[in-house]
Structure formats: C-alpha cells, structure tokens
Design brief:
By secondary structure, this protein is mainly beta. The protein contains five helices and 23 strands. It has a domain of 245 residues: Jelly Rolls, CATH 2.60.120. A hairpin with a 5-residue loop joins strand 1 and strand 2.
Length: 450
Amino acid sequence: MVRALLPLGAALLGATAVLAADIPTCSLNKKCPEEAPCCSQYNQCGVGAYCLGGCDPRMSFSLDSCVPAPVCQDKVYKMDSLDRYKDISEYLGDPSKADWVGQGEPLVYDGNVLLTMPAKSVGTVLATTTYMWYGKVKARMKTSRGAGVVTAFILFSDVKDEIDYEFVGVDLQTAQTNYYFQGIPDYVNGGNITIEGANSYDEFHDYEIEWTPDEIKWIVDGKLGRTKKRSETWNATSNQWGFPQTPSRVQISIWPGGADTNAKGTVDWAGGAIDWNSEEIKHFGYYFATFAEVSVECYKTDSAPGTHKGVSYYYNNIAGTNDTVVDSDKPTVLKSFAGTGTDMDKGDGTSGDASQSSSVNTIPGGGSNQVPGGSNPGSGSGSGTGGSGSTGTSGSSACAASGFSQHCDDESSGGGGGGNNSNNGARGVDRTLGASAFAVIVGIAGLLLL
C-alpha cells in the first residue's frame, strides 16, 4: 500500500474537525473537567481519542476516565506496508484492527516505511497499539539527516515514563540514549553510543532496548552500548525509584528540533536551525527516516510486574508506579469518539458521530500549545521554568527502598486508589518538555503548519 503525500494542513484539518477554541488543559494539580475527562499525552482534555493511547490517568477527571490499554504482544512488525496503520482519527482502541496509530504522512518506499517531514511541518509519529510492560524491542532503521532534524525510537508510557534512542541529523555516528521517570527532566540521564560503519543515514542498523524491572540495556548492532540499573536511581528526597516502570508504547518519529519556534537550547541540541530549502527537501520533497522492521518480545514472568495475561492494563492508584498497574480483562475499545473510559458504549458506533454532535474535543492534535518549543501547559504548575521541584503531593514516608514496591500510600488521604481524584502518592512536576519528549508530544499533536 503506497499513500500519496498530502499537504500537511489538509491532513491536520481531516484529523481535527472539531477543535474547540479553548481546550481545557490538565496537570497533576489541575484535573480535566467531568465533561472532557481525559488528559491526553500532551496535556489537553477531551473524550474519544483523548481517552486512548497516551491518556494520563493521574491528570484526568478520574483514574478510570482513560480507556484501559491493550496488553503486550510478542510481535514482529514488518515495515513493508501501511495496511495495519490507522490515523488517530480512525482508531477506537482495537489492536486486532491496527498495529500502529499516529499522525503525519508515513509512506511505503522500496519495501520500507518512511516517516516523512515536508517543509514547515512537525513531521510524523507512529505508536504501537499495544503496550510493553518490560521486555525487548528492536528497530532496524535508517535515520534522517540534516541540521535540526531529529529521528526518535522510544518507549513512552501514559504516565510519561520514557526510554529513548534519539538521532540528531548532524551527527550520524552517534545514538543518543536517555530515560525519564514520569517526565521528570533529569538531564543527567543521557549517554551516547558510537555507531560503527558508514553512518546511521546510509546504512541500516539495529537499535535495541532490553528493559526489565532491574535494568535497561541499550544495544546497537548486537553490541551492548549502555546499561542503567534500577538500583542506581533511588531518590531519597521523593522516596521513589527514578526508573521507567510502567506499560509503554513503542513510538517512532521524525520531528524538527531546529524549528525557529523552538527554544534556543533545543535548536542548539538539534544541530542548529533546520533548512527547509535543503537539498533533501529539493530532491525528495521531505526529510525522512526509514524503518524496515520493529520487533517486540514481552517480558516473561508469572507474577506482576510485567505480566501480560489479560486483555488490558489500567492503574488503580494515582501514584502511577509499577505496583499500581493491573493486568486485567477490561475492554479496550470505544464504540465511538463520544466515549470515555467510564462510558465506552456512548455514541452510535461511527467514528465521526461525536464531531457532528458535540463541541467537546474528540481527536487530539493542533493548537498553539503543541508548536515545537512551546511550554507545556500541563507541566506541574505550568510556569514553564523547566525545573523539577515538586508542586503536588510528594511520595509519603510509607515508600520504601527495599525491593521494587512503590505503593506510596498515605492512608489519611484515601490513597487506596480506584477512582480517587486526589494527588495522593504522586509527585508534582514543574517542567518544560525536554528534547526527547518532543519526539512524542510534537509529533502526535498533529500536523501543525509552522
């Protein structure tokens, strides 16, 4: 299946037919309102697709506002077709009908999938429809190239745990790696791996993440490049393991780190300002990254954390740690984009019915808040200072550094979870999105013309 390249503005309009002028925003301190209960991956409130992949239960109206996430499946994704890809405006949560969901203009060329970024666009992002709760994921790929052009291959959870590979287009011999716990921007977590051979653009290379409850390994072309142990991440101040630990989607993307709307620090990190009149644009019509195959191997364990015995994952406590994840038989599919996690059968079953009858946002994407470099309105207090100080309720003294249990429960405030709408057990975050998060937030936000 080969798809013609559409103008990005047209694609955006098709995917965001009902964007309200003032979309409610959400954070740990500001929950979504009941009429738009789901907090999307980039901190805006709505129903429908807002309640699917990326929906943050900690910032939503209630924990069960988000639709449960499909459990891990061992799978090899041959990236030679887009038959199993759906735009975010077409996907209602059934992983049997799609392997990938996203926004942008993925193309098929020469038996591979290209993630494209035409001039003045924010590129393309794809995310798996199932979640991996520990395991192995490997991508065989070629990166993009050029100043300001960034390719990303990451794991990203609904509570913003993150494990990354990122590639800056002016340094084709380096794979940058990083990890974050619940979006806390601790920029000392990075590490580089040298890519052997010609470069990451001209040659295919295999990039792998092995993730267990105890450590993360980054492996390039079968050679171990970096290891991070969970035991090295204890934060005595917050009484938390600063270690990614919750079910995550695989996300692949290309995005303009060097866009002139970005902060200077992001542009500098990305290798400078992006050239929308480059030879790449003139010759091909877009910057691109090439993906040949992505494989997922689920973690093998008989007891949580890390199981995938049921149908879906959901959170039973706002702490959003590995011991608050439930491997369940709850359904994952909405009847229409009018639905939410608490009313999954709402609507007549057509994907567009909500857009025709409701002013509530149903399809995430667009809006000035998603322009690269803009501060994230849902980040803690929303001050955009980029700090990581706590602005919500911190982990209680009941958290312990023994084992990997993180049930930071303050019984006096009803931290037992369920539909509890308090911030018990969660740390507030005051942050401006770091570079790695742009690969997710900017891409899936839609094809906003700059």
